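Example 4.3 (complexes with small molecules)
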Amino acid sequence: MYKYNDFDTAFLEERNRQFRAQVERRIDGSLTEDEFKPLRLMNGLYLQLHAYMLRVAIPYGTLSANQMRQLALLAEKWDKGYGHFTTRQNIQYNWPKLKDVPDMLDALAEVNLHAIQTSGNTIRNVTADHFAGAAADEIEDPRPIAELIRQWSTDHPEFQFMGRKFKIAVSAGEKDRAVLKAHDLAVRIVRNDAGETGYQILVGGGLGRTPMIGKVLNDFVSQDDLLPYIESVVSVWNQHGRRDNKYKARIKITVHELGLDKIRELTEERFALVRPTFGGADLALFEEIKAHFANPAFRSGGTDAYEAAYQTDPVFRAWADTNLTAHKAANHSIVTISIKAHGQTPGDATAEQMRVMADLAEEYGYGELRISHEQNVILPHVHQNDLPAIHARLKEHGLATANIGLISDIIACPGMDYCALATARSIPVAQEIATRFDDLKLEHDVGHLQIKISGCINACGHHHVGHIGILGLDRAGVENYQITLGGDATETAAIGTRTGPGFAYDEIVPAVERIVLTYLDIRETEEETFLETYRRVGMDPFKAALYPASEKKVA
Amino acid sequence: MPRPFTPKIITANDLLEGDVIYYTADNSWTREMSQAELIEDEAEAQLRLIEAEKDALRVVGIYLTDAKAGANGPEPTHFREDFRRTGPSNYRHGKQEAAANV
Ligand code: HEM
Ligand code: SF4
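Answer. The structure with protoporphyrin IX containing FE bound is encoded below.
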């Protein structure tokens, strides 16, 4: 795992000292809210509906056991005993008091965590494939690239006050688990025909009010050129991006308006100037960073205990079937811990649960944890013989839900229950869908189906790329939910299509149920997933199920 | 044609705690919407807002919002203000819970 050097530590201390003084000046009245707001946002502090909210970055989703314990401590000491893990590999605390925030930041700094660039028009927390370093299908661990970008972008003088925020994601295989194509810029590690490792660069993806799928800007950027190339792209956008209208400021609009070829041309021009300013220090740093991400020495040994539990314990088997992923090392698995128990708030974990997960990571998982953009927690390296013991412990703490990739593994943004920008609630809709399908005992029969819910057009809940997407709106003072179908968050990314008129709060769960029952009716085989069925038959059968009356009128 | 004026209350968040507060007839702030001042006149609403904004160093995000007269004082007319008044609806842990502990 990346270890902070003296510079990082000193930088964090200085930042926290500055912010503590700013908070004091706000409280004693020397700063107005207009003066203070940009300062607090630079340090991840928002004001939501009911309280302040502190957003802490979990760079590329990687946490040590100790860092997880510290997150638990913050939840307990300065919040209401829980934290909310988000789609951007951050954790949000929903109830901090203004005067406590400097202490919270100091406590985070003790374990090298911070809230810098989790807000504002900067380069945000760099996200990565949550299985990085463990996945059987990756070319190499993408996190050193993410860390390199993090160091380069942190406090980068040119990129602190841009036209809008800028989000970067990295991944390293054919499979895309980091929603690359919904990011402003994405780096995919690839190998060319000569067997050299390099980087494919995508730009112009984004969700929000104008959803766009990212496009390939460059198929192969060599290792030496990566940082100067990224700097050139950001710099071109910083110069040409629109500042007249914040809804048109993201790079997706610049790419859309100028065209991909023009952006490529401008980037090349800029690159010719920028490249010589990178003297190779970035490459030396990269080599140093890489060493910190070396894999642990994986244990050997048989898998007899695992096989035995798998054969005899059906509850364990169901969990193993949904929550485990192939690991690159022999006899190891990647464990996804669901923090989506049916009826719970997706992404919330209590302080106690965080400690249990930290303990498990320390006892069985080489001290490592990951947070996924799907709002779950991951033990990336686990020897299979330890799985029965891990499962037993998870069960005791409400963490053994076997639903990864299933209909109750829902992404939901905070919505009107917390967020000041919301137009409707999203969490209770997720809770009710999960509970309903659990009652129907249909979840495992339905199989892989991703529902994603946002409480407003900003799309923090990724609804555009949900197989079933739900967007909560305010229609004349009443909550109303629009449904989209056919979205896809992977390498075959797609924006979902609207079914038609929206549904009232008490109609949305029955509407989802009709969609799912229709799918079960018309799928060709049990193996055909919801998305495959949708792609085969299109919208019509689902429309007919959702709007029976209007269907009759047309007929 | 301008829309007819509807009754308003003044609300904000507390600077230190961050929680939802309402402006009262005696120029102070309360946690209870039912104790807020219901303002029935448009010009008066603007004057009261200016008065409330004198507290801008202690409270954050002051605004006028619709409310109606209820049996026990002002009540929300929109669900957003209803949630602000009560706390998150996913489970009881906001204002609802604080009230239960009094
Ligand atoms: C509750 C406080 C939050 C506020 C005020 C907020 C605000 C916003 C805004 C204004 C946008 C639109 C940006 C644009 O289009 O330029 C946005 C986008 C986004 N937010 Fe949030 N958000 C919040 C919470 C969250 C949470 C909890 C998550 C993760 C679950 C999240 C993840 C995202 C993502 C993934 C986008 C993607 C759209 C994009 O940038 O292309 N946000 N947010
Ligand atoms: S999508 Fe809207 S409601 Fe949901 S967290 Fe983002 S800004 Fe808030």
